[in-house]
Each structure stands twice: as C-alpha cells, then as structure tokens.
Amino acid sequence: MSSHLVFKNCSSQFRAAVSSRGRAQVWQQAIFLSRGAGYTSARQFASPSVKVNSQRLWDSIHHTAQWGDSHDGGVKRLTLTDDDQKVRSWFAETLTAVGCKVKVDQVGNMFAVRPGANMALPPIAMGSHLDTQPAGGRFDGILGVLGGIEVMKVLHENDVVTQAPIAVVNWTNEEGARFNSGMLGSSVWGGMIDMDEAYSIQDVEGTTFQAALKRIGYLGNEGASYKTNPLAAHFELHIEQGPVLEDKNKTLGVVNGVQAMGWTYITVHGHSQHCGTTPMDRRNDALLAATRMIPQINAMAREVQGMSTVGVFKSEPSSPGTVPGKVRFSVDLEHIDNDTRDLMVKRTKEICAEFAEQEGCQATFEDTWASRGVRFNPLCIETVTEVAEELVGKDGYETLPAGAGHDSVNTSHHCPTSMIFIPSKGGVSHHPSEWSTQEHW
Amino acid sequence: MSSHLVFKNCSSQFRAAVSSRGRAQVWQQAIFLSRGAGYTSARQFASPSVKVNSQRLWDSIHHTAQWGDSHDGGVKRLTLTDDDQKVRSWFAETLTAVGCKVKVDQVGNMFAVRPGANMALPPIAMGSHLDTQPAGGRFDGILGVLGGIEVMKVLHENDVVTQAPIAVVNWTNEEGARFNSGMLGSSVWGGMIDMDEAYSIQDVEGTTFQAALKRIGYLGNEGASYKTNPLAAHFELHIEQGPVLEDKNKTLGVVNGVQAMGWTYITVHGHSQHCGTTPMDRRNDALLAATRMIPQINAMAREVQGMSTVGVFKSEPSSPGTVPGKVRFSVDLEHIDNDTRDLMVKRTKEICAEFAEQEGCQATFEDTWASRGVRFNPLCIETVTEVAEELVGKDGYETLPAGAGHDSVNTSHHCPTSMIFIPSKGGVSHHPSEWSTQEHW
Questions:
Q1: What is the structure's pLDDT at A2?
Q2: Which SUPFAM superfamilies does UniProt cross-reference here (chains A, B) (predicted)?
Q3: Which of A3, A297, B167, B271 could anchor a disulfide with B125, C-beta 3.0 to 4.6 Å?
Q4: CA A379, A382, A383 angle in degrees (round to 5)?
Q5: ipTM at complex level
Q6: B365 and B390: one domain?
Q7: DSSP letter at B281?
Q8: From CA A202, how far away is CA A196, in angstroms rounded?
Q9: SS3 A303
Q10: Is A247 a domain residue?
C-alpha cells in the first residue's frame, strides 16, 4: 500500500482498529486475526479453503424473496410493512444462530454484532438494506445484507475470531419509496436528519414513520446515532445498477465514491400563440427555446465528463395548434467532483438564459435537491482493491464511482467507508427484471 | 383586371352572375346594380354617401355579446346551446326586418336571403359563424355575420337592388368546440362530411349533433348541400387572429388563400434508464433525441417559408432521475403550397429518423390530420383588392394567406370565395382579450 494514504478522515476508533502503522496488510491482520485457522492477512483469508458458500447465498436470496414476492421475478417489500417485518425476523434469527447479538435502534436500523477479540473497538460493518422499490428486484440492497450474513456464517463455521467486532447492518427505508426520504435510517444515524423530523414523515395513507416502526415492533431502544452506536468502518456490497461492468466484462467494481448529484428545474416563459396565424419570427415559443437548451446542456456535461439528464418535461397548454407559452423541465446534473458539479449548474443556467433570450422568452430556475459527492476512504478502497485483485485478477475489476445514493454515503461522514459492486444484467435496477448471476455473487 | 384570370373554378351560376366578359368592374356593376341611387360600380358604391354605420355595427357586436357573456370581455357561446339559440333568433328577426327571407338547412346553417333583380341567380353570400370557443372573444366569426347584417341594413335603407340576391350566412359549429369537428356546417354543405356522420357526432355529455339541433329548433328543412342550395360567391370578413396587420400598421388584409396544414405525431422509442448509473454514451435517451429533432424541423420549415409548431410534448416515465424511454410530440406543419407542405412532412420524418438513429432510438409517425391548402378565387381577390385600395389606399392593406381554417375553405370548392381580414389586437384570438377597434370595423 502506498504511503500517501492518509487517515485524516478516519475516526479514532478505526485508527485503533487498523493499527497505528497504517498499512493495509496490518489492518487486515488486525481484522481477520484468526485463532482457528491462523489466517494472517486478507490475502490468505481469501484463499480457497475459507470462502463464502455461493450456493447458500444464492438460495437465501431466493428464500427471502418470498416476503414481498411480486410473482414476476421481482420483490415489492416497502419498508415497515408486514413483509418487511418477516424478513427482519428472519434476519435476527439467522444471525443470532451464528453467534451475533442483534440491536435495533430508534429508527429500526438493525445491527447484528459478532464479538471480536477487542470489544472496546466499535464493530466493522457490512451494511445495506432489505426494503425495495414498489416494483423492485431481488438484489438491490438485499445482496449487501445477505452477503454480510453469508460472511458471518463462514466466520462462525471456521471459528474465526476478529480483532474488532464485526456487524451486519440492515438500514431502514433506504429506498424512500414508502416514506419519501431516501436513506432515512442511515441519515438519522449519521445526523443528517433529526429523529423527530424523520418520525413525522407520513406515507400516502398518512401513517407516520414512527407509528409504522411501532406497529411492526421495530421502534428500538438503541440510540440512532453514530455518536452512541459508532462503527469502525462500513463496507457495502451492491449491484452496480448500471451497465459499465457488464459492458467491460468485469466481475467486480471497486467503488471510489458517490457522485455529486442534484436537480434543477427550469421554467421557460413565452407566450401561447395561434400556430397558424403567428409568423415564425413573431413567436415566443417556450418549447422551441427549451429544445434548443437541452442538447447544449448535454454537450456541456459531456465536455466535463459529467452527466446530465432531462427526465421531466411539461409543456402548456399542450395543444397541437398552439405555440407553447410555458415549459418546465428537470435537469439532473452529476459529477464525481463537487466543484465541477457546481460549475455545471451555473453553466446550465447560463445556457438556458441565453437560448431563452434568443427566442424572446425568460427562464427561471429552482434547485430542488442536491446531494454532495463523497470520496470514499482511500484505505478502504485500497483494501477492496487488493482483495479484488486476488479474487478476479488485475483485469477482472474496474474502479468507478457510484451514480446513485447509498447508505454508505451517510456512513462515510463518520467512519471509513467503501463499496463493492457486482454487474447488473443489462444495467437494470428498480425493476422486477433486475438480475445478477450466481457467479458474480 | 389582368386577362390571365380564369374562371375554371367558378360555378356556372357565378359565371352568369358576374357576366360573360369576366372583368371585375362589370361584375361589380352586375352585383351592385342600383335602382334607387344609380351606382354602377363598386368604386362608386363605396363612396362616402352610402356606407356602413360603424357605430351601429359596434353596438350590435356588444349587444349580441350578452348571449354567452363570460363577464371578462369575452363570450362563451358553444354551438346549439340556449345562448346560441337566442343569438340565432335575433339574427333571423333582424334580417327579416330588413327584407330578407331566412332559410335553415338540415344542419342548422342559416341563410338570410335578400332578393335580387334576377332571382334565377344563386345568392352572393357574406358568411361566417356566431358560435365561439369555450373561452372565446366577441369578434371571431361574429364580425363576419354582423358585418353582413350591417350591409343588409344599408342596402335596405338606400333601397339598393342588386342583380343577384344577396345572403348573410351563419354557418353551424365552425369552432368545433362542442362537437369536435371544426367547420361542420359548411363541411356538410360542401359535401366534405356526410350528413349522417355529422348527425352522430357527440358532445362530451353524449348529446348528438342531431339531437342538439332538434332541441333548439334548428333542424331545418332546406337541403344541406351546395347542390340544392347553391351560392354564387362567398365573402367572409374575419379578424386576422395573428399579428401581421397590426405589426405592419395595415387596416385591411386581402386574403388570397388558406394555408395547407396538418399534424404529424412523432413517437421516439428509447430505453428508460437510471440516470446516475447509465453512462452518457450508453443511453437510448428518447427525450434528448426529440430535443435534437425539434430545432432542426423548425429550421427546415423556415427555409421553405413555411411554419412548424410543436405544441404537444409528452415524456415517459417523467421522473427527474430516469432517462426518458418514450417521447411523443406533435408537429403542426403549414405552407401556402400543398406540394411544399408534403415535402415538409417528408423532411420532418427524415430529420426524426436521423436523430433517433444517432441516439440509439427509433422514431414512428402518425399523420393524424391534414387540410389541403386553398387559393381563393382570383376575381374575388381582385374585387376585394380594388375596394380595399379605394377605402384605405395602396399602403393601407396587405395581401396574405389565412393561417387558420374557415368556412370559406369549404365554400371555395363550390363557389368563388375570398376573405377580408381586419387587425387583431396583439394577434390574440380564442381568448376573452381578443379585440379589434371600431375604426377597423
């Protein structure tokens, strides 16, 4: 491991857990200190004799898909529903059976902790979520939790004792599909959202988040905060939800961060005019102005290796014989670098103002949502990279940023974090056809 | 009048009415043959001593606006409603009082005929419509009918006897706002739509056109056909509904035809993709493809002095975080020349296919509606031009095509037709703020 890696973003607990020498192998030794089998490095730990049981993991995915089975290959398991309650019970029972102690915090986050040699250290966590989108698949989120459970089973079977405790975490309401605030459980834990604010969020039927937690018996006692319930590190295994790995024929993705992303809505104000009687040079055509802006925004985003998407586009009065007087559209802008994304937002507004003026219109702007980008912890990335190289070789993995929000974004502010991706068939997610192969698992 | 004018589109009746010599002055003499005042040409007839009463016309506009008054300056008088019945009664009474005989045909078209010296000739008509859009103004259509009534009053007061009979026509359901088929009454009269088909058209409440005619007592006995109830000519005074005359500071528009127009719907088929995880070069972005097409279609239309308008634009799934998988939009294409419009439709489809391919999408097309362009009768245009020049001088009028459909399009296939425009304030129509000045009247 190169010596330029710095620990300045690491919590003191993690620094202790990974040793004061700051070298990956030492850290891996510390974590995977084995009494039963004598493994002294991650490299050895990843050797053929101790590895996850692919078939068992595959079976457990399909076993748990019964709770919320949408009978089209997918899963509909909205957070804190009866189906979520059932998979949560299974989670607790399964991990208790392999020597874990399960804690539930005040927002339903579940921490299944396997003791380590040094119980003064906070646990090193493998976390993700068991809730899904309304028409979701059986992999998004679930893979990260069930992958963690499989690791626990292997540790248990091989009588491995780690230096720090190890935990599997099931974060509540990552999808934000029932309570419309994504990554809600990890956001409260990370201090991004106040607990009372989270409690008051209602689903479409008016049930509050707090009432829903209480109803299924998951309003826990553990403080929902990184301060009172810290983690030494957080690793998240997840499907890519994009086509890059599949396209490049890679088996693993080493995730180096999450892109900065956000939405700007642009309203173009023109005049509704009769299309047959208003000459072309006498128009204030809001739609024409908008359609001139959008390809330019796209080109600008490509220039800086960023991403732009116009997903919503509404036109008024929406009559085939009338020049549209008003158009409103969304622009999603993403970049791995926060400053570059800020610049993209600025350029987008300049482009819109320019074309609006050319077409005799005005453009107004609303920045409705933004999520700052995150660079994951260099030491965690390096560790994942080393193991990936061992498992699939130098050409078998790709280092890439995540393009979607994950609980790891929230943990990354409070403990060293990184993620691991496996390929998504056709890049599809949030859909019953979402799929990943057993081999990649 | 130049000798190249031909009569091949004129009915035999009109040829008789305008004399066999085919010169405008002679025709005007024929029409306006005056017994009481001795006028021998339209030029003389337009002299200061016999002219319309501007104030009376102005007053009658505001008087009739009581039937459907929308209390915001506009009129809501959908066809065959109680308000329409009231204005129709007023029309019949007013014209009967000045010596006309009122006929109602099988689709409610009203023909108020003032006898001429030669009753073997079909009447020369001034026609338009008394129905309005749901949020319409007090000028569109109404001006043409009330202008005709004012002419009848002047002829009556001055005891003028014309060679051919003169008629004022109120065409039924021009707007197509209640029964969704515009210019319906004149279309049945012109043989463009079968009467039974017209009768079966329903409004949103399921009332048929036939039942609505019967309810207000306007299912007449006169055959609704140019064959049994012919006109020798049709002139229509109308507001411009556009800004050209106002912009150029003209008082009158001599309308030389109606543009060819029609709608093509384009559907762009791409793939819905997660915007954060799908790289820019891996997308099949239907919306980006569409927004690249639209400015190109616009440029192409301008190149050939035509018009293009995208009025409807729908995108799916319409989520700010999802690359749109499907976009459907309308393109209205207009040109004074039918062949050039056909070419515009062809080029539009080529442009769309090209950009769809570039963005990894497919484009499909539906031509949902088209109306062939019409060149009005040269003799009628010439007559209107001569009178316009007399009234407002060489710089006071502009010759231009109409950009919207009118009953005159239908009459033009069966009798010599032309239209006269007056300026619309701000080019606005189909809106309560629609306005034209008393001076222009």
A1: 29
A2: Bacterial exopeptidase dimerisation domain (SSF55031), Zn-dependent exopeptidases (SSF53187)
A3: B167
A4: 85
A5: 0.75
A6: no
A7: G
A8: 12
A9: helix
A10: yes
